[in-house]
Amino acid sequence: MADLVREEEVNKALDILKFTPMSASKYLEKLLLSAISNWQNKNEGVRIEDSHLLVSEIRVDQGRTLKRFRPAPQGRAHRIRKRSNHVTVILESTITEGAAKESTKKETVNAETENKEIVKNNIEKQTEN
User: Fold this and answer.
1) What confidence tens digit (pLDDT) does each residue in 8-54 have?
2) Is 79 within 8 Å of 121 (Cβ atoms)?
3) What angle do CA 51, 52, 54 make, to 5 degrees?
4) Helical H runs in the chain?
5) How far apart are CA 60 and CA 64, in angstroms?
């Protein structure tokens, strides 16, 4: 299941997990939503739509194993291993901070040029009158 969403954008990964009929998909979907929420809490000033988040890394590692015994015939016991796992999800923004700063600089420069043009037009109108 983890291979399906590795290196995918967050929205596409959520769609894949939502419509995959395997039982593990609902747990991974819940985990991915939690990771998105954590990202939002850490980056409060950034909109999630503008950041282009993707699942850069997702790992499923072996966790603790609970060992139990079950009675078997002729007074014997069989070992039962109840396995668990650890899932690690790392989200990454495809837009770097430098690119975000450049885009804001471009927006401010465009706003300044628009303001200058408005001022010029107002001056020309006043001189005509």
Assistant:
1) 999 999 999 999 999 999 999 999 999 999 999 988 888 888 888 99
2) no
3) 125
4) 2-5, 10-18, 24-42, 48-51, 97-128
5) 13
**Stated length of the chain:** 129
Q: For 49-100, what is each residue's pLDDT tens digit?
A: 888 899 999 999 999 999 999 999 999 999 999 999 999 999 998 875 555 5
34, 22 contact by CB (below 8 A): no
What is the spatial distance between Cα 53 and Cα 8, in angstroms, rounded to a whole number? 9
Encoded amino acid at 58, one letter: I
Q: Quick one: tokens of 46? A: 């950034």
* Burial class, 58, CB count within 10 angstroms (exposed 0-12 / middle 13-18 / buried 19+): buried
